[in-house]
Amino acid sequence: MSDLFPNADTVVKTAAIYGRDLTERVISTFLQAFIAGVVVTQPLDVSMWHAALMGGLAAVVSLVKGLVARWRDVTNSASLARGV
Questions:
Q1: Dihedral sign for Cα atoms in the order 60, 61, 65, 66
Q2: Which end of the chain, N or C, is less packed with Cβ atoms under 10 Å?
Q3: Which has the closest alpha carbon to 30: 70, 48, 67, 57?
Q4: pLDDT value at position 37?
Q5: Quick check: is 23 in a domain?
Q6: Side-chain half-sphere of 3: how many Cα atoms within 13 Å?
């Protein structure tokens, strides 16, 4: 029966690796979108709060994509690419 399920240490390690990967992806997506939004706000005369909102929405989309990747394939990665 023990061959059917991984031990608790393995589950905790894989969850920690996945969580760290997903957190890194969400934060980097927010920062990239925020910086891009700030660059766009200057010529379009849009407030910096709109840039922050764009960054936040991009981070939410990144989070959802990472969760979908986890549900689709049991891996330690938030990537949709196979074998990552």
A1: negative
A2: N
A3: 57
A4: 77
A5: no
A6: 0
Task: Please write down the long-range contacts of 55-58, taking CB distance under 8 Å and 24 or more positions apart.
Answer: 55/30, 55/31, 56/30, 57/33, 58/29, 58/30, 58/32, 58/33
For residue 39, the enclosing domain spans 30-78
Chain segment 54-65, per-residue pLDDT in tens: 778 888 888 888
Which positions ≥6 away from 59 have C-beta within 8 Å? 26, 27, 29, 30, 33
Number of neighbours of residue 67 by Cβ within 10 angstroms: 12
Task: Work out how many domains the chain is built from and give that number.
Answer: 1
Structure tokens at 43: 């010529």
In a domain, 7, yes or no: no
**pLDDT bracket for residue 19 (50, 70, 90):** confident
